[in-house]
Amino acid sequence: xxxxxxxxxxxxxxxxxxxxxxxxxxxxxxxxxxxxxxxxxxxxxxxxxxxxxxxxxxxxxxxxxxxxxxxxxxxxxxxxxxxxxxxxxxxxxxxxxxxxxxxxxxxxxxxxxxxxxxxxxxxxxxxxxxxxxxxxxxxxxxxxxxxxxxxxxxxxxxxxxxxxxxxxxxxxxxxxxxxxx
Length: 181
Description:
alpha+beta; two-stranded antiparallel sheet; 27% strand
């Protein structure tokens, strides 16, 4: 599904000028959110056992096996233009959280690995080297999220979102922004 195209069509139907939609779209930040137990079809799982390519050893670092954090089916994720995610296959995220965050001398990512398993690769359900490497499995669902620019967000009382308008000169605003102001 072309989410950005859907957004543009909906905005045009509401009478928002095309140049304003383009300007706004430059500020809109899209993200794919994953949540456990959500509505919709699962796109992966937290914990559980991974399907590793036949013959691949369980990912480790310095002899320490890395627990499976997340498995994601890339083909089941929403497509977003500009995201450099594979169109298919599975991404497996392994991380030893205690070592990665709790070791002061750990290099970033030292205790983490990402494994990409392309579609069509012969895989097997991997047996964990120990019980700490595979926690209980929780299915995750995906949803497309959009973060709005600060000047459009309805913030709580602690946020000074109105400062955006105070710092913007009237002549620098587009006609649509002037109308909003």
